[in-house]
Every structure is written in structure tokens, then in C-alpha cells.
Design goal:
Jelly Rolls, 5-stranded antiparallel beta sheet, binds calcium ion, 8-stranded mixed beta sheet, alpha+beta, globular, 2 helices
């Protein structure tokens, strides 16, 4: 009797363990990476203004919602924005960083972000600017994949609070770039910044913006058990009940 009960409990625990690991997805490279839950990513767009910006590298709106960082993205310039909500998860304010926002290109650009606990396009916090850093992985078109790590405490949320929406504002960046055969360290013309771009051979001037690729929650949510799994666990619990009754009788 006791042995059977133990077996049932063990099988229930094994099932739960399997569910929480299903679909995990590692994003990033040598400098930074993280193993995301499969529900971690933003789930839909509720508002947007993509006027100056453009999709690149095969990017699409739906491609911004998944954990595939190689299917392109969107460049967002001044006055552009895009607002996302989470529907099958929330981003919890845990210890340290809570959200990873992926951006592509060189140099790693700033990301201007606002968040909200609501999904109805209200309650947005004032925007904050975060720098991003190279992860060591690649996005589409061989662009560097950069990440900005967002701590919800920065927006005034208490630990244990959750947010359900993320809004990304575009920024226009002007660069003068000098590559391996260019003159390094020169001040850029037109008010831009000169950067030493290892990916080009000569000097250039480029205009770009935040190149949004993906947004994922870093919180490890309580696994959402699938109906089939619940049925199996339920069967196990019924089995336990039957065995208890049997032992009494
Ligand atoms: Ca999600
Ligand atoms: Ca994608
Ligand atoms: Ca946090």
C-alpha cells in the first residue's frame, strides 16, 4: 500500500517537472544568455506607430512575438513606438532583472521603454532609457544580437508585483563610422558620434534606430499545466483516493 502511494506521488512530480521544462529556449551567446520559458515572450501588439521605421531581415510584427531572434526585427526611429501585452504570462518583479529586450546591430543601441500592469493600453509608467550590450549571438543578417536588461523596481514596482504590457519608443541615432581602414577616432560630422565599426572597411555615415527583435520575461513562472497533464495528475490522485479507501476496507 505505502509503496503504491509513493509511486503515484513520484509520477505526479515527474509529470510536473516535465511540464515546467517543456519548450525552454536559450537565447544569447558567449557574453550573455538565458534559458527562457516558452511562454516568456510578449504575445500581441495593442498599439503602434511605425512611420519612420522599417522591418528588416525578414522581420514581421508576428516575428516580434516569438523567441526566434533570427527572423528579423523592426527599426524604430523618433516618434515610432510599439506596445505589446503578455496574455499567457506576466513579467514578475523578482530579484534583479525581470525583462530582456533584444536589439540588433552595432553599436548596441539604447532602448526607451515604458511598462504597465494593465493590458488595456492604460497605466503606462514614464519611459526610461536602458543601454543594451552585445550577447555574443547573432540576429538576422549577421547583426549582433544585443540585450537590455530591465529591472521593474526601476519603475517603482515592488518585488512580487507583475506587469502585463511593454511599450518600446524609437530613437534616431546618427553615426559616422570608421572601420578597419578608416581614420579612427574622428569626431563625426553632423553631430553624430564616430565609432570604430569592425564590420565595415571604410568610413560611413548611417542613420538608424532601436532595432527591436524580441521581448521576454525573465521570471520563471509557475508552470501552466496542459489539460492532458492535469487529467493524468487527476487520475493519479483519484488512484490515491481509491487505494486509501481500499486500505480502510
Ligand atoms: Ca507570453
Ligand atoms: Ca522573432
Ligand atoms: Ca526586479
Amino acid at each position: 500500500m505505502k509503496k503504491s502511494v509513493l509511486a503515484c506521488l513520484v509520477s505526479a512530480v515527474v509529470l510536473l517537472g516535465t511540464v515546467s521544462m517543456a519548450g525552454a529556449l536559450v537565447i544569447g551567446g558567449a557574453s550573455w544568455s538565458y534559458d527562457f520559458d516558452d511562454t516568456a515572450f510578449v504575445d500581441s501588439v495593442i498599439d503602434k506607430n511605425i512611420d519612420g521605421g522599417w522591418y528588416w531581415g525578414g522581420g514581421t510584427e508576428s516575428g516580434l512575438l516569438n523567441g526566434d531572434v533570427t527572423d528579423g526585427g523592426v527599426a524604430l526611429l523618433d516618434k515610432d513606438y510599439i506596445s505589446f501585452i503578455f496574455t499567457d504570462n506576466t513579467a514578475l518583479n523578482g530579484v534583479g532583472a525581470d525583462l530582456a529586450i533584444f536589439e540588433a546591430g552595432f553599436p548596441a543601441e539604447d532602448i526607451v521603454v515604458s511598462v504597465s500592469p494593465f493590458t488595456d493600453d492604460t497605466g503606462w509608467t514614464p519611459a526610461r532609457t536602458y543601454s543594451s550590450k552585445d550577447t555574443g549571438a547573432k540576429a538576422a543578417d549577421d547583426y549582433n544580437l544585443n540585450v537590455a536588461l530591465i529591472d521593474l523596481t526601476d519603475f517603482g514596482f515592488a518585488e512580487g508585483d507583475s506587469i502585463a504590457a511593454v511599450k518600446i519608443f524609437g530613437i534616431t541615432s546618427v553615426y559616422s563610422c570608421c572601420g578597419s581602414t578608416g581614420k579612427r577616432g574622428r569626431k563625426g560630422k553632423g553631430g553624430g558620434t564616430t565609432i570604430n565599426d569592425p564590420y565595415i572597411k571604410k568610413c560611413c555615415k548611417s542613420i538608424g534606430g532601436t532595432d527591436l527583435v524580441a521581448i521576454g520575461s525573465l521570471s520563471k513562472s509557475v508552470p501552466v499545466a496542459e489539460p492532458g497533464t492535469l487529467l493524468l495528475i487527476g487520475t493519479g490522485l483519484v488512484g490515491l483516493g481509491l487505494m486509501r479507501r481500499k486500505s480502510r476496507g
